[in-house]
Specification:
The complex is a heterodimer of chains A (about 475) and B (about 190).
Chain A: H1 25-53, H2 66-98, H3 105-125, H4 141-163, H5 172-192, H6 200-235, H7 242-255, H8 271-283, H9 285-299, H10 310-333, H11 335-341, H12 346-375, H13 382-414, H14 421-427, H15 429-457, H16 463-467
Chain B: H1 4-7, H2 9-28, H3 30-34, E1 43-44, E2 53-54, H4 60-71, H5 86-91, H6 133-141, H7 156-160, H8 162-172
Antiparallel strand pairs in B: 1-2
Classes of the chains: A mainly alpha (about 475), B mainly alpha (about 190).
């Protein structure tokens, strides 16, 4: 793909390019698939949350134990919902930022078909217990290979589009998307293939490098690409600073990959490697605060728009959750804090704030904004969209805050060896009950979001949609 | 120079890749070359240097049991690491004797590793030899028959399959046994 610079519109030259008709078939495919899996995997999520309260639930079915369903929940949300949702939005954003058509819709649709095969493969193999035993990398080898092929197809399509672009300067979202394409490839290869050549601590180190960067170098950059595109778009305000977005991007590119070993603080891994990972974890505050400041400064004087716009509500709440989760992360890596919160229920609280509170909120906002433009229909119901926000927001907060409090308390109890372990389990029962009911609220949010999307696509126009 | 990445996709890709590989190689490839304990199985015959013992590889039966541990996702709720925390060494201890902390050389034959990230149930890094086969049979059939308030799921289909059950128990009994640290070596078989 040689980069053609001729005929390109330079930054600030005042030139424009003719409007083009985008086809968007691929974006539509990915969007419908991801939204469907969001609903299906939401049921799994509720089931495993219920198992904390009623441990014998479905206890006689070996395919539906906690140990079989948890990887399905994690992989389903990561690779069934969030990543394809991000890919759908990438397929929408990139041609528009480049002012060209997508390189190949045929290749894109083929990628979407392959992606659905992978997700359905996971739904079959994980309950059967075909689990490779490495967190986030549970999928059997055959599916891992398909993921790599699908990623190469996706990357080729996007890169070819970017190389054919009409604008010379690239908006920040494009760098983040290119970063995602490159880093995902290497991070995924490390976590699913390189690990197979190592054992024990060495393998764990590779595994955590993957687990950490699956969030840090896959979902973070693509999530920020989406936020950088949709915050200015939905508020109709230009981004505050191009330079600040560059600082954030290159700091992220350099710092993130060093931090994998902070998953084993106090554990059986070299102390000096723990210290390196702690130092770089604290440095993560730089790229995070650069991005968050940029988003807040963009919204200066525009906050009133949140009242009317569901996408902006999701986006800016997502930014706040991103700020919080990325403040927790560096703090957890400090040895003293880690001694309390590590391995406790605080950790799922933290992980859910990153993947649901920040990155899923960005993706939902992107879908709410894009959907009417993709299908050229009015959103089925603005009122329902608002409800979906409040369900997810209140359910999410209930979930996060309960698990932090419970996890912190649990960590204190563990650090007092006079308390028998089983008493620390019994103490958490009310916490898990509140978590389950927060999960019910979140699921209500998912259902109202998914129903709204599907009803819009199927074009059941209601009067309400016109009047609100 | 990073300015170039503003208008050139090739530069942006090149810099992203280089930045990734600096940290990537230094934190994954370099450490096992620097710290040899990651790959050298534990062996110590000198009591003045800490607990004695030798890490031996798993038998085929123990490996079969380990595969069941992986398949059932036991590792989502049970860690296998006694961390460098006083409370961990006491909780992993036995009859008032503190357990030694876990070191990388005790896990050289672990494939996949089972260190875990979440401790919903107790840590299992030193559980080997603490409970006998009959205890495990009852416990796997229904954990709440032995431990009131436990939220571990029942696993009757493992208990009913003699070979699976015996393999799993054989694996569990190996956990943390490379280091001989218990007084009088009072391990259950």
């Amino acid at each position: 793909m040689p980069e053609q610079t001729s005929g390109r519109v330079a930054l600030g030259a005042g030139g424009t390019v003719p409007a083009i008709e985008h086809c968007d078939t691929t974006a539509k495919w990915f969007m419908i698939s991801s939204v469907s899996y969001f609903f299906i995997v939401g049921i799994i999520a509720l089931t495993i949350a219920a198992k904390f309260c009623w441990p014998s639930l479905l206890g006689s079915v070996q395919y539906l134990t906690y140990g079989r369903l948890r990887p399905l929940h994690v992989n389903g949300m990561l690779f069934g919902w969030l990543l394809p949702a991000d890919m759908a939005l990438t397929f929408f954003i990139v041609p528009r930022l480049c002012a060209v058509k997508l390189y190949s819709e045929k290749l894109g649709v083929a990628t979407a078909v392959l992606w659905n095969i992978i997700v359905l493969g996971a739904v079959v193999t994980l309950p059967l217990g075909m689990n490779q035993g490495l967190e986030y990398a549970e999928l059997p080898m055959g599916l891992d290979i398909l993921v790599v092929i699908a990623w190469l197809m996706f990357s080729y399509n996007i890169f070819a589009t970017i190389f054919a672009r009409k604008y010379e300067a690239m908006y920040v979202s494009l760098w983040y998307i290119m970063g995602t394409l490159v880093w995902t490839a290497f991070v995924y290869l490390t976590g699913n293939f390189a690990v197979l050549f190592a054992t024990g601590t060495n393998q764990a180190n590779l595994n955590w490098m993957y687990v950490h960067n699956a969030v840090g170098l896959i979902f973070t950059p693509v999530g920020l690409a989406i936020a950088y595109y949709y915050i200015p778009k939905s508020s109709n305000t230009p981004i505050y600073s191009h330079r600040l977005s560059m600082i954030g991007f290159w700091a992220l590119a350099f710092v993130y990959v060093w931090t994998g070993a902070h998953h084993m603080i106090h554990g059986p891994i070299s102390q000096w490697l723990q210290t390196i990972s702690i130092a770089f974890s604290v440095m993560l505050l730089i790229p995070v605060w650069a991005a968050v400041y940029n988003f807040f400064a963009t919204m200066k004087g525009q906050w009133h728009q949140l009242r009317e716009s569901v996408p902006l509500k999701f986006l800016m709440s997502g930014v706040v959750f991103y700020l919080l989760t990325c403040f927790q992360g560096p703090m957890h890596s400090l040895r003293s804090v880690n001694a309390i919160v590590s391995k406790t229920d605080w950790i799922p609280g933290h992980a859910h704030m990153a993947l649901l509170g920040a990155f899923s909120f960005f993706a939902i906002a992107g879908i709410y904004f894009t959907l009417p433009r993709l299908f050229q229909r009015k959103l089925f119901s603005e009122v329902l969209a608002n409800w979906s926000y409040w369900f997810l927001m209140i359910g999410g907060l209930g979930f996060f805050v309960t698990l932090w409090l419970g996890g912190f308390w649990q960590g204190w109890q563990w650090n007092n060896p006079a308390i028998p372990f089983i008493d620390t389990v019994k103490a958490l029962q009310p916490i898990w009950l509140v978590r389950f009911f927060s999960g019910v609220l979140m699921f209500a949010g998912i259902v109202s979001f998914v129903y709204n999307v599907m009803a819009t696509i199927l074009g059941q126009a209601r009067d309400e949609a016109q009047t609100v | 120079m990073l300015r170039k990445a503003d208008t050139s996709a090739t530069w942006a890709i090149a810099f992203s890749t280089v930045f990734f590989f600096i940290g990537g190689l230094l934190t994954t490839v370099a450490p096992p070359m620097i710290d040899k304990t990651w790959s050298k199985p534990f062996e110590n015959n000198d009591p003045s240097k800490g607990p004695t013992g030798k890490l031996v590889n798993y038998t085929p039966q123990q490996l079969k049991g380990r595969a069941i541990y992986v398949r059932e996702g036991c590792w989502y709720c049970h860690t296998q690491q006694t961390r460098t925390l006083l409370s961990d060494t006491i909780r992993s201890g036995w009859k008032g004797v503190r357990s030694p902390v876990s070191t990388p050389d005790e896990f050289v034959y672990d494939y996949p590793h089972m260190f875990g990230t979440k401790r919903t149930g107790p840590d299992l890094s030193r559980v080997g030899g603490k409970y006998d086969t009959q205890w495990h049979r009852t416990h796997f059939r229904n954990p709440r028959d032995l431990v009131q308030g436990s939220i571990m799921p029942p696993f009757p289909w493992i208990v009913e399959d003699k070979e699976e059950f015996e393999s799993l128990v054989a694996y569990i009994q190996t956990l943390g046994r490379a280091k001989n640290w218990r007084p009088d070596n009072d391990y259950e078989k």
